[in-house]
Design a protein that fits this description.
This protein has one domain. 59% of the residues lie in helices and 0% in strands. It is built from 14 helices and no strands. Helix 9 crosses helix 14.
């Protein structure tokens, strides 16, 4: 996948496109109100009940079936908290409510990644420089080669395995992303520069580990091993699900990349256009969208990160109409097809360029 180009529309078309997208954004912002507050509070209630029921069944279940049900409910709770609640709250989607529990600057989510680090590496770096090679460090997470614009190295032969490991430990990979090991190795920064981050990360990670693997197991007394196992599986399920959703929104075969040079002096219309070309949606039912934090509408999320995510389905209809009007591709497909495309892309770029023949995802 070579880098794309942002010169397919005329200057006036880019300006018109940007104005129409911005008009849509302003219309939705002006309409925010009770139904949006009701949505997030309903999700929070479901998440909390799922956690209570899950932890109760894990701790007091009398047979393997009830324990498994507890693991499932706790997994759902952790996914809802990370995806539809934490991620979206920290984007400022509910700051307008003036609810201290839903404030983007003070919310702390149930993962080893501390919120300050997330707001820096994700909200700012990734959403500002989406898919710009050399600027967006979320592109491949410094682990995977996903374009011919990145030099091939022998370690890339194993990137399907590396992807599996990254997915299983996804919260840790995201939590340590700000450490910027690649920049430390290159000499751009030193370990000393990262001391403040390491302190924050260590404090947050210790709190998470203590909660799931010390506090709750201690409450179970002799039943501590089954609580540890249950919490471990719930965290694993959350990690695998989160990784899958994020990769389906960013790294399908048709998601494009961009060079720093072509994004200089980018207009607002070109910025919106870049979000479109560099993102992927997938289709599904209501609860698939909720469990994905509505990142099933990754295109709309990249264009409108501060709009409550449950609004994306209705906004997507208008975005697609504008794409048709300006002859802009809109990358969407079934969940299964998009994930298959992700795996094909990872496999394709694990090989040296001369052997990187396209893989079919039909």
């Amino acid at each position: 996948m070579k880098t794309s180009t942002l010169n397919t529309l005329t200057h006036q078309e880019f300006e018109n496109f940007g104005n129409e997208i911005e008009q849509l954004r302003q219309e939705v912002l002006a309409d925010l109100g009770q139904r949006d507050a009701d949505h997030i509070r309903s999700i929070i209630k479901k998440q909390r009940y799922s956690e209570i029921a899950g932890r109760t069944l894990i701790q007091f279940g009398l047979n393997p079936l009830s324990w498994a049900a507890g693991v499932g409910l706790l997994s759902v709770s952790k996914i809802l908290e990370n995806m539809e609640i934490g991620h979206n709250v920290m984007h400022g989607q509910y700051d307008w409510m003036n609810d201290p529990e839903l404030n983007s600057q003070s919310y702390e989510w149930d993962t080893v990644c501390d919120s300050e680090s997330w707001r820096n590496t994700h909200n700012f770096e990734h959403h500002t420089y989406t898919n710009i090679l050399g600027k967006d460090r979320d592109y491949g997470y410094a682990v995977l080669r996903l374009t011919d614009d990145e030099p091939w190295k022998p370690r890339h032969l194993f990137q399907l395995v590396n992807y599996g490991v990254l997915s299983a430990f996804f919260q840790w990979g995201v939590g340590l992303h700000e450490l910027e090991i690649d920049r430390i190795k290159s000499g751009e920064i030193s370990w000393k520069d990262k001391i403040p981050f390491v302190k924050r990360f260590s404090k947050k990670a210790a709190k998470q580990v203590a909660k799931d693997y010390l506090f709750f197991p201690a409450l179970a007394g002799p039943g501590a091993p089954k609580v540890i196992a249950g919490n471990l599986l719930a965290n694993l399920n959350r990690n695998l699900w989160t990784s899958t959703i994020i990769f389906c929104g960013h790294f399908t075969g048709d998601a494009q990349t961009f060079s720093e040079e072509e994004c200089k002096n980018e207009t607002r219309g070109q910025w919106y256009y870049r979000q479109l070309l560099g993102s992927s949606n997938f289709t599904g039912g209501k609860w698939l969208h909720i469990m994905s934090g509505h990142l099933s509408y990754q295109i709309e999320h990249h264009m409108f990160p501060d709009i409550p995510s449950h609004r994306y389905p209705e906004m997507a209809i208008k975005v697609q109409q504008l794409c048709k009007k300006y002859d802009i591709p809109y990358n969407t497909g079934s969940f299964g097809r998009q994930y298959k495309s992700v795996l094909a892309r990872i496999a394709r770029y694990s090989l040296p360029p001369k052997k990187s023949a396209p893989l079919s995802v039909s």
